[in-house]
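Box 3.1 A note on notation
Throughout this textbook, protein chains are presented in two layers. The first layer is the amino acid sequence; the second is a token string describing backbone geometry. Keep the layers aligned when reading.
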Amino acid sequence: RSHYFIQSNLRMAADPDDQHVKVAVRCRPLNEEEAAMNAEEIVSIHPDQGSIVLHAKKRGDMEKKFTFDHVFGPDSKQLDIYNICARKIVDSVLEGYNGTIFAYGQTGTGKTFTMEGVRSIPEKKGIIPNSFAHIFGEISKVGGDVKFLVRVSYLEIYNEDICDLLSKDMKKKLEVKERPDVGVYVKDLHQFSVKSAEDMDKIMTVGNKNRSVGSTKMNSHSSRSHAIFTITIERCDQGMDGKGHLRMGKLHLVDLAGSERQAKTGATGKRLKEATKINLSLSTLGNVISALVDGKSSHVPYRDSKLTRLLQDSLGGNSRTVMLANINPASYNADETHATLRYANRAKNIKNKAHINEDPKDAMLREFQKEIEALKAQLAQAEGPGDGLSGSEEEYVNEEGKTVRVKKKKRKQSLDDEEMKAVQEQLDKEKKALLEASNMEAVEKDRISKELAAREQELQKTQQEKKKLAEKLQMLEGKLIVGGVDLVRVVLLIFMDNAIMD
């Protein structure tokens, strides 16, 4: 795998000290089928108050009011949701915090639209593609002595099995592991280094082709799995001591499968099995949230599902987290909407313990910096042909006290390209002179010819080795993006990022 370095300064992210999980609710408009049925809307959105009112479905029922950090109505814009809910999280990840943004809700309420949107239409792009432009827009704005390494991975949890969406072998089931130094991770999950928003977009396109989707009565393109797109950002800052100081943040972008009722989705056979597994993992997620907020539980059931195991840091751990609850306004789905709002209302009471990840044990940036320095050193020490000082002998006393005479090894020279060119020209002159030497005995001529051939072969070997080292170094250093140098890309990214800000 190639590893890309991005070098730049980065503006400091201003994040509040509040560590509670932030919760926002988005209500989609009625769809064509619901409008054709003259479905009644029973949800009122009050963005200025951050509240949602669920009106009585039938006479005698009570109105229910919920208050959240942010609420968005049917007319909400994708960029508004990104700027309000996601921008601060992404900024903090660039500073070395972990961050999580996940969408929750009943099937067909617009979770995938919120997280991914329509990537080919700028104003309809969701949180995930907008984060791509944001990240590289921040990195590319100015040059400096801060270096970045950005990697991505993409997985799904389907029927409680973890699959790598970027793997050629989609049948391989991956395991969740845990180490004291790095925490919870997925063994053998592929990570790919990226140097642009376009790289991320291409990788996500590949992963989406492998994702499990299917049709139900409530959603013709229903996600049948939970998907987690993870962006790992390592940064190395030059400290006052002249040394590089590493920080690493991970951004988990989670598109959860929707909760389902079999009576409404009409799921049977394979779809019913999928729905059962989806509901089980979402139920466990609810149990984890309840255990974290009730203040009485001594045990939080993270291990009861793969989803909650992977989101362990995101809920109650080392992460800044935003939950986006998606709801349906139709009276037909009043019970599901009420359940989602209660779920989200509990989640806002979760308190995390986010901190900057300094000098992480699983950082790769330092290793690649070392590799670049090692390549430079190898190039500087690349040996040329012998300088003709071989053949002399030296003496030393061995462990038995005996004097031993050995031939010195041929001393090599470190030659630059110009010196190698001069050596080749000298060899060419000597070969020409040998061909023109008419009075030289055949045996002597053959000996000199073989010696010249050996010297030329040694020179060619040195040139090939040096070329390989130079190509490898060029490949690594060629991935550096320095602010203010790659102007076409920088202008494009700043334009995209400014569009998000506007």
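The longest strand covers residues 142-158. The radius of gyration is 31 Å.
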